[in-house]
Each structure stands twice: as structure tokens, then as C-alpha cells.
């Protein structure tokens, strides 16, 4: 299967050799399998360990569900049936426009960016506006936000159906726009919505959070041990999420910059090894977060120890303090 790139790409005209594509399929498939296993572990840990069921962690679980879905789609797309030829029927056209267009994958990409932004704003509210946090992030409101994420993603990416050309059982990716300028406009809006806007919001929010915590650090030294413990836990969560944010930039940045430059009129070889490497980075983003949690998130580390019958390094009491975090 041709690597899933931005939907305005004319990928059919830049296919690599069969050998190269087979190798890429294996790479993409392995990345997807790692993402499946890692994100499944994240869900199990946070949902089974009772004292880890906090709002922040529920949002992280939702992120893991999005990444798990994306990883499953990756495995199916590259290690499953390729559907190079389909029946010349309505069913064949549905496969072409719904599956071959990568509609579901790019919908999860938008949902992922939106959810990362929501997680950032949740921590921003907790740190900058602690007195109003409980009223801002109520359970019903958060559920509504998560549902809205998926609806926005599915609706926004619905134009993917129109960039696939179905001709007598053969499915081809083509730029079917009113004109070239409109196609470029759609591409720019696409990059702006799924990368630039989330990038700007998260950059500003995390910068303000870090500055606020630094200003409070001197006063924290004089506080009681219980409050100091909460502050340390809050900082650990923030540091972990900043690393997740940086991973988002590193994994999505090269591909989005390349595609944006293409939309602005610069030449781009979608069959080049450099571009394929940028696409691999995009897929890697769905697999890398569990490793970040394992390395940087003490709650997750202790949760894994509890799941596998090991004693927490800092004790169960240390992780349970996060219940009252705001």
C-alpha cells in the first residue's frame, strides 16, 4: 500500500519500487504493532489501578485510545489486504474512498492533536487558575469535549473521500479540486488545523505553566511536606507532558513543513527517501508516548509495578496524592 501521506498528495505518480515498498510496509507495520502493545499497556495500567483514575490520567488514557486506534489502522493498512484491485461496484468504491483515502487514520491524527491540546489546557487551568479548575473541567464538560474532538476530526477529514478516483475497480489517489489554487488552500488549512494551531496553543500554555511553577518554587520550600509532595507530583506531570509535546513536534514537524512548502509552491518528491522518513516519523508518534510515560511519569511507573506485582519504589501512598491535584 502506498504510504499514507496528506490527502492532497498525488501518491500514485511517485510509487517506489516494489521491493522498497515491501520494506516500508514492514517498517510501518512494526511501528504499528509497537504502538498497539504500548498503548494497550497504558490503558490497562491507568484503568486497573484505582488511585490513578484522575482527570489528567483519563485524558491520557483517551490519548492512548486514539494512538491505539491509529496503530491498529497502520497495521491493517500495511500488513493487511492492500486492495489494489477491488470489485467494480458500490462496495469497491466504498473501500476506495473510505479506506484507501486513509480517512480514518487522518481523522485520528486530528483527534490526537486536539486531545493533546485539551490535556495541555487542563494542566494550564490547574496551574494558572487553580481556584476555578474544578468548575472549568467538570466530568460532563470533559466528556462533551472528548466527543466533540472525534466529531470535529471526522467532519474535518471528510474531504478525503473526494481525493480518491475510482475507475472500474482501480483506486487511485488524485487531486480532484476545482483548481490547483483551491487544492493548495485545502492543504494549507489542513496543516494549520492539525499542526500549527495546536503547536501555538501548547507552546504558549506550557511556557506560562513553567514560568508560574518557577515563581512558586521559592515559596514551596517553606511549605509543609504534604503540599510539597503535591507540588512535586504536579511538576512531574508537567515535565512528562512537555516531553510528549516535544515528541509531537519532532514526529509531525518535518512532514508538515514539507507538505506546507509543497502547498506554497515548492517542489517536493513524495517518493524520496527523505519524505518516506518523515512519514515514518508521523506513524512513530502513536508509538512513542508509552515509552515517554515509562521513562518520565512516576505514576505510570508505579502503576506498572503494581500491575506486575512489584512494590512501588516510592510506595503506593506517593502515587495516590495525585488524586487531589489541581
Automatic annotation (TrEMBL):
Keywords: G-protein coupled receptor, Membrane, Receptor, Transducer, Transmembrane, Transmembrane helix. It comes from Saccoglossus kowalevskii (Acorn worm). It is found in: Membrane. It comes from the Eukaryota. Belongs to the G-protein coupled receptor 1 family. This is Galanin receptor type 2-like. InterPro entries: GPCR_Rhodpsn, GPCR_Rhodpsn_7TM. Its main location: membrane. The chain crosses the membrane at residues 23-47, 59-81, 101-121, 142-162, 182-206, 240-262, 274-295. Pfam families: 7tm_1. The keyword Transcription does not apply.
Amino acid at each position: 500500500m502506498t504510504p499514507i501521506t496528506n490527502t492532497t498528495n498525488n501518491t500514485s505518480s511517485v510509487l517506489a519500487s516494489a521491493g522498497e515498498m515491501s520494506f516500508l510496509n514492514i517498517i510501518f507495520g512494526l511501528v504499528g504493532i509497537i504502538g498497539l502493545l504500548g498503548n494497550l499497556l497504558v490503558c490497562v495500567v491507568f484503568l486497573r489501578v484505582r488511585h490513578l483514575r484522575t482527570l489528567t490520567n483519563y485524558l491520557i488514557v483517551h490519548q492512548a485510545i486514539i494512538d491505539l486506534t491509529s496503530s491498529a489502522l497502520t497495521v491493517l493498512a500495511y500488513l493487511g489486504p492492500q486492495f489494489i484491485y477491488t470489485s467494480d461496484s458500490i462496495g469497491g468504491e466504498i473501500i476506495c474512498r473510505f479506506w484507501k483515502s486513509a480517512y480514518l487514520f487522518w481523522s485520528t491524527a486530528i483527534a490526537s492533536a486536539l486531545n493533546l491540546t485539551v490535556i495541555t489546557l487542563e494542566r494550564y487551568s490547574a496551574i494558572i487558575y487553580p481556584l476555578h479548575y474544578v468548575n472549568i473541567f467538570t466530568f460532563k464538560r470533559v466528556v462533551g469535549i472528548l466527543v466533540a474532538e472525534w466529531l470535529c476530526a471526522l467532519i474535518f477529514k471528510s474531504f478525503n473521500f473526494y481525493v480518491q478516483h475510482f475507475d472500474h475497480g482501480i483506486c487511485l489517489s488524485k487531486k480532484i479540486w476545482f483548481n490547483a489554487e483551491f487544492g493548495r488552500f485545502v492543504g494549507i488549512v489542513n496543516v494549520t488545523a492539525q499542526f500549527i494551531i495546536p503547536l501555538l496553543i501548547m507552546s504558549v500554555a506550557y511556557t506560562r505553566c513553567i514560568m508560574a511553577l518557577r515563581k512558586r518554587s521559592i515559596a514551596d520550600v517553606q511549605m509543609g511536606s504534604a503540599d510539597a509532595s503535591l507540588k512535586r507530583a504536579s511538576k512531574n506531570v508537567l515535565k512528562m507532558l512537555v516531553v510528549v509535546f516535544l515528541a509531537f513536534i519532532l514526529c509531525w514537524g518535518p512532514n508538515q513543513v514539507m507538505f506546507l512548502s509543497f502547498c506554497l509552491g515548492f517542489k517536493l518528491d513524495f517518493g524520496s527517501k527523505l519524505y518516506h522518513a518523515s512519514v515514518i516519523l508521523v506513524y512513530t508518534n502513536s508509538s512513542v508516548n508509552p515509552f515517554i510515560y515509562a521513562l518520565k511519569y512516576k505514576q505510570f511507573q508505579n502503576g506498572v509495578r503494581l500491575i506486575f506485582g512489584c512494590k512501588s519504589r516510592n510506595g503506593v501512598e506517593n502515587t495516590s496524592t495525585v488524586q487531589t491535584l489541581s
